[in-house]
Amino acid sequence: MSETSLKPRLTSGETDWYENELPRVIRPYRSHPLRTLTAIALVLVLASLLGISSAYLVIEREQPLDAVTIGPWQAYPKAGTAEADPYSVAIYTRGAVIPLASGEGLALVARQDSNGHQLDPTCVYRIAGQTPSARLWTLTAVNGRGDLVETLPGRVHVVSQNILRAPDGTFEIAAAAAPHSGNWLPLAAGASASDGLRFVLRLYDAPVTTGAALDGVSMPVIERTGCP
């Protein structure tokens, strides 16, 4: 007689009694097919919602990834290249923005001043110092969504060719809604703090178009000099 045949055989009722006497944590678990399908469907729905929500929040911030930060300025050297990440491509596509290619130049964006405070279109700012070497550069004021605004003189930028400079090559620019003497960057007329403000510095035909080339370069400081 085999060893298997000597083992006691439990009937169905005895098996149920035996399992009911076991602690709950070690009882055999019999999953229900409908319950399993419901759990899988719930996990898939939650994962989809999480993925869509996170992608929406990243795109809604309108700040591309892989930023290189220099003081208050942020540059995106990979924008407009094949190495740009999908989120950055989606941000530029949504805003109908064509970034400068690496052979054309580089754009730097400031959303805060040099002390880390959010830019306010109702305040007055002093932008001073030097920029990286470039054949031409422009400094533009836009609102928090990156849109151009209406100003008193009808312009929203200054150009390097028209800048008054000190003997050492440095410059000072007053960014304000009201006219200022010297270099004046007009801000939005009648704007409110909720409109937001960004400064966009575009360097054309500049050698600093990669993240490595931006290390140690000199960028203008942004100082708040007054608010209403």
Automatic annotation (TrEMBL):
InterPro entries registered for this protein in UniProt: DUF1214, DUF1214_C_sf, UCP009471
Record domain DUF1214: where: 105-206
Presence of keyword Transmembrane helix: yes
Entry keyword annotation includes Transmembrane helix: yes
UniProt entry keywords in alphabetical sequence: Membrane, Transmembrane, Transmembrane helix
Pfam families linked: DUF1214
Spans traversing the lipid bilayer: 37-59
Identification of the protein by name: DUF1214 domain-containing protein
Organism in which the protein naturally occurs: Roseibium marinum
